[in-house]
Amino acid sequence: MQTKPLRLNPKKLLHSKWTALKPVNKEKHFMVTKIIIRDEETQVIENVEIEAVMTGRKQVIPWLALQNSGVWKQGWQA
């Protein structure tokens, strides 16, 4: 059974919370801290910067990667 991709509203991405389903270095919970826009005129989002809550490490990922339900779950899950 294949799961449907999450439907994300780009306007609600900033400060949204995410759980990595396969944590690396005990980094499981993340928050979107920055939206990276490709084109100022059209306001097209290209990437997001996410910050690991436990370590404070930041990384930039394509914002559509958050739709991969095999990697990310919306919200902070135990």
Written account of the structure:
This protein is mostly beta strands. It has a single domain, classed as Thrombin, subunit H (Beta Barrel). It has no helices and five strands. A hairpin with a 2-residue loop joins strand 1 and strand 2. The protein is globular, with a radius of gyration of 13 Å.
CATH class: Mainly Beta
Q: What is the rounded distance between the termini?
A: 24 Å
**Order of adjacent strands in the largest pleated sheet:** 4-3-2-1-5
Q: What class would the helix/strand composition place it in? A: mainly beta
| Rg of Cα set | 13 Å
| Fold-level CATH name | Thrombin, subunit H
What kind of sheet is the major sheet? 5 strands, antiparallel
Percent strand: over 45%
CATH architectural designation: Beta Barrel
pLDDT < 50 stretches: none
The shape, in one word, is globular
The overall pLDDT average reads 89
Helix content: under 10%
SSE pattern, N- to C-terminal:
EEEEE
Topology record:
Blueprint: E1 17-24, E2 27-39, E3 44-52, E4 58-62, E5 72-74
Antiparallel strand pairs: 1-2, 1-5, 2-3, 3-4
